[in-house]
Amino acid sequence: MSPADRLTMTDELEPVGDHTKVRRKIDNTLARFAAAHEELAAEEAKRQERRERFIARPVALIEQTRTRLQRVVAPVKSEGNDEKAGPQTRLQEKKQRRSDRSIRITRIACAVLAGLIFLATGALWGTKTWFNSKFTEIAALDENSSDIQNAAGQTGDENFLIVGSDTRAGATAEENVGDADTIGGARSDTIMLAHVPADRKRAVIVSFPRDLEISRPACERYDAAAGTYTSEIVSAATKVKLNTAYAVGGPKCLTKWVQQQTGLRVNHFVGIDFGGFKEMVDAVHGVTVHVDSPIRDTTLGMVIAETGDVTISGDQALSFVRARHVVGDPTSDYGRIKRQQQFLTALLQKAMSQGVITDPTQLTNFVTAFARATFGDNIGVDQMLTLAQSMKGLDTSKLKFLTVPTVGEPNTRGNEVLLETRSKELFQALIDNTPLPGTPEYEAAKAAASATQTPPSSSSKSSGSTSSDS
Fold first, then answer.
1. How far apart are the C-alpha atoms of 271 and 246, rounded to whole Å?
2. Which residues pair with 207 in a beta bridge?
3. Which of 263, 297, 373, 380 has CB atoms 3.0–4.6 Å from 149's, for a disulfide?
4. 3-class DSSP state for residue 433?
């Protein structure tokens, strides 16, 4: 046994007194402090190691990047700084600089172009969205109606029911049309059906006299002031004027009658108030119409005093499309229909002209005025451009303005009488996209169809069967 062991044993076996207890407590405390110090030292060493690694990583990455750049740049620098290099090397350096500069310019140009395209696309989309938001939507369409004939065959066709409302709401004294207090409600003062077939090779606009005698279907009551429908159902009626369909049942009722009468699928409804004509014309700085003789109305007064090609203002345009009692024109409503068709053509041509399309101010003012005065269903910038572009540039043989066939004279009730057979022929030609009745092409097709009909066989004659025309 070593002296140290004997000393330890002696210490442990010695009598335990107060002095020994104090000394042992001090020794234990010192041991704990020593252990804690060692743990703290170990943790600090670990933290220091982590700090060194954290600092070393980015330094290493920077060094690696610098080394790679040196590998790339060094050959160029050595070529450019090589004092012994001949003129050919300096020429290569010059070419390299030009090449680098061209690459940078090309990249910058591409980035700028991409940015401009993005901004332009966003601006156009935003502008169109803003314009579309200005149109007032009113339910009018029923594209799944059972009244539509050959619906599959009409795929791609565009049919715009265009209605000029005679509401006096918001009318000024200068417009000379009365006010909402004296002339309440709203009637369809102008009714046009614009048909653009899927092939876009022609456009046909058919006008309906406001006093056409019809059998009106049952419809929901329409509140023109609020632009909404009520729960009241207006009963069907016979021998009433066409403009009453809109007056009692609004766009839905008028669309319903048009589809029953024509078999066409109406997929756009455009309603325009009186004031809309004036603002739209003023927005494009006037519209030019041809006048053979001065137009004076017994109610509205002098409308246009000049003759020839006359550029009319908004106020004149409003009277031009409304005049029904023109001196020297006994046709009344038919004369007005002709002027309305003339005005619509002139307005669309002006709106689609380069002077308006390329002038942001005029274009914005026109679309804003149109949107403010327009209401309907499935209308907007795209839809109206389809109509305008279909009419613009078409020659006379491909752009047809017609009036639905009537007797031509009012009956005892003061109503125009529809020629049912001729009307059905007209609208069937639109549905089938075939030549219009009355045209040489129509007569030729009709003659060819008659020539190909098989005459009755002798057997049928002998059996006593007969053939007769209804």
1. 11
2. 192, 403
3. 263
4. coil
Give me the amino acid identity at 331.
T
The whole-angstrom separation of Cα 165 and Cα 373 is: 10
Interstrand relation of 237-241 and 213-216 (parallel, antiparallel or unpaired): antiparallel
Q: What is the DSSP string of 266-335?
A: --EEEEEEHHHHHHHHHHTT-EEEEESS-EEETTTEEEE---EEEEE-HHHHHHHHH--SBTT-TTTHHH
Alpha-carbon Rg for the chain in angstroms: 44
Q: Which two tokens stand for residue 115?
A: 């940015």
**Average pLDDT over every residue of 146-165:** 92
* Token couple for 95: 């070419």
Nearest of 403, 407, 434, 437 to residue 420 by alpha carbon = 407
The per-residue pLDDT of the chain, averaged, comes to 76
Retrieve residue 80's tokens: 């450019």
What token pair was written down for 437?
Answer: 């009745």
| Count of C-beta atoms within a 10 Å radius of residue 204 | 18
Going by C-alpha positions, the residue among 307, 166, 277, 270 that lies closest to residue 224 is: 166
The upper half-sphere exposure of residue 76, i.e. CA atoms within 13 Å in the direction of its Cβ, equals 11
| Assigned token pair, 110 | 């591409």
Of 376, 369, 363, give the one whose Cα is nearest residue 127.
363
- Dihedral sign (CA 42, 44, 46, 52): negative
Global pTM? 0.64
Structure tokens at 65: 């990047």
Pair of tokens at residue 349: 């041509």
Give the highest mean pLDDT range of 5-19, 249-263, 270-284, 363-377: 249-263
Region 65-76 average pLDDT: 44
Contacts of the segment 350-358: beta carbons below 8 A, 24+ positions apart: 350/284, 350/287, 350/288, 351/280, 351/284, 351/388, 352/388, 352/389, 352/392, 356/284
